[in-house]
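I'll show an entry:

:::
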Amino acid sequence: MSTTIAVAVLNWNGKSLLQTYLPGVIKDSAPHKVYVIDNDSSDESLAYLNENHPEITVIQTGENLGYAGGYNEGLKAIQEPISILLNSDVRTTPGWLNPILEHFENHPDCAALQPKIRWDRSPEQFEYAGASGGFMDRWAYPFCRGRVFGTLENDIGQYNTPKEVFWATGACLAVRTEVFKTLGGLDPMLFAHMEEIDLCWRMQRAGFEVWVQPESTVYHLGGATLSADNPKKTFLNFRNNLIIVMKNLPHFSALGVIFLRLLLDGLAGIQFLLAGKPKHTFAIIRAHFAFYGKFTSIQRSRARTAKYPFKRFSDLKGTYPESVVWQYYGKGNKRFSDFY
């Protein structure tokens, strides 16, 4: 295959993760180039890289720009036609790049792609952040083939078919570098969480495709930056979900979804309260106020992409026309294949 690829690992104070995962990434990715984009680490990450991995290229951002800003800055220096945005806690496998490259070469309209993601803590299971491809229901709740809310399925080959999806996970996100740059990259307003969903949404609006290619498999540790029990993660997920809805749906459709989410997110807050997690309840409340506080910035961001049509969910790939919340909590359908 003639196409070259850049494997870009984002790092912030992650020396221990680099020690654990980077040697395997370098070995499994050869002969393609590996970059580490460093978000102004204050630990010994850079010293470790300089001493142990002179074969890679280190790109320094100069400050902690988060996931979105870090990758936007780092990819300015990358010229390979395909870039893989790889979390520093991902274990790759031999030959993992071959199915990805072949898919891009055979699908010229594919702008983003993810491999199958298993959980490195429990390798027989799918991993939360992406599993075997990301989907979205009519009320903008994301879920995956192999992971619906907190339920992880065992991978027994049930989702091994390549498929067009709504979004590909940011844990291991392969993109056409030029398309990434043309569409403005990841939105730094989001800082962390759901930036990849927003990017994939904009790619679909611009006429491109997003795929999962399960012939390639990687293992993601997950929670290395923020664990699921961290209220900040809850805040970012709820706030950013509202932001990307307002940015990408037709105006009146977006307002309708946000109104219903106000009700459903309120129920989620009550559930956290009953579970003895009041900090998460307050995180949801803060998320909504933060969203309203950014409304002007969101409208400006929306205007910057207005040349691409704002499409209804029914006009996008990887959407579910009903409510995944009702399927999961109301009908007890915990697996993707139970209802999709």
About this structure: Residues 271 and 277 are 9 Å apart (CA to CA).
